[in-house]
Amino acid sequence: MANPVINGVEQDLRRGRVAQRGYVPPQQGQFTQQDPYAQAGQAAQGSPAQTSARPITYEDVINKSGIMLGLLFVAAAAVWVIGSYIPAVAALGASLGALGAFVVSMVCIFKRKITPALFVTYSVLEGAALGGISMVFEQRFPGVVVQAVVATAAIFAVTLILFKSGYVRGSSKLMKFALISLVGILIYSIASWLLTAFGVITNPMGADSITLFGIPLGVLVGIFAVVVGAICLILDFEVARQAVETGAASELSWRVAFGIVLDTVYIYVYLLRLLAVARDN
C-alpha cells in the first residue's frame, strides 16, 4: 500500500505469514483474496499451517484505532491547555513530540514483532506534536483547528461509508497512484522548505504562497494532498478487510490501526495547512 505500515501488512497477507485459515496468495500486484472453496478452519492448498492465535475481527481494528486516536487527542489537549499558560510547553511539545513520534513510528514500521506499547507511545508523542502545532496555527488563524478537525472527521466518515457500501475498493492501480503522489508531495514540501530556508521565498508559507491564476499553490497542493490521504484511508480499509477475511492473527489489528491513524493525522495536518494558506491569502 502507499502507507508503508499497511504496505507491510498487505505483503504479509500476500505471502501467507499471518493467515489462520483458507488463504491463497494472489498474483503479483493484486490484492489478497480468500479462496471461496476453502472451508473455515481448513488450510487451502499451499497455505501456511494454522496457529492457535485468535483471528482478527473488525471490532479489534476499531478498538485499537479508538485507543490510539483517544490517546492522541488527550495528549494534544494536554499540551494545548498547558501551553496556553506556558507557551514554551507548546513549542517543546511540537518539536520533541514530532521528533519522538517519527523515531517511534520508524521502529513500529520496521520492527517485525508487534509491540502494543510502541503504538501507544507513538499516539502520545504524535498527540503532543499536534497539540503544539495546532496551537500555533490557532493563534495566527483563529478557528482553523476546529475547521480542520471537523473536515478530517467528515472525510474519514465519507471514505468509510463509500468503502462499506462497495462504491470504492482498493486496487493495485490506486496503490501506485497514491504512492507516486505521496512521493511528489514530499518532494514539493522539501523544495518549499529549502527555498524558504535560503531566502529565495520570503513568505513563511514558502512555495504555498505562490499564486497560479490568483489561487495560492498551497491551496491546490493541499486539496490534492487531502484527496491522496482519503485514497490511503481506502487502502487501509481494504487491508483491514483482507486481514479479517483471511483470518489473520488478532495482534495484527495494532498494525492496521496504526496505518489508519497515520493517514488520519496526515489528512488533518494538510487540512490545517490548506485552511491556513487560504486564510493567509
Automatic annotation (TrEMBL):
| Membrane-spanning intervals of the chain | 61-82, 88-110, 117-137, 143-163, 175-201, 213-235, 256-276
Entry keyword annotation includes Membrane: yes
Q: Which Pfam families match?
A: BaxI_1
Could you confirm whether the keyword Transcription regulation appears in this record? no
Alphabetically sorted, this entry's keywords are: Membrane, Transmembrane, Transmembrane helix
Q: What protein name is recorded for this chain?
A: Bax1 inhibitor-like family protein
Q: Which organism is it from?
A: Winkia neuii
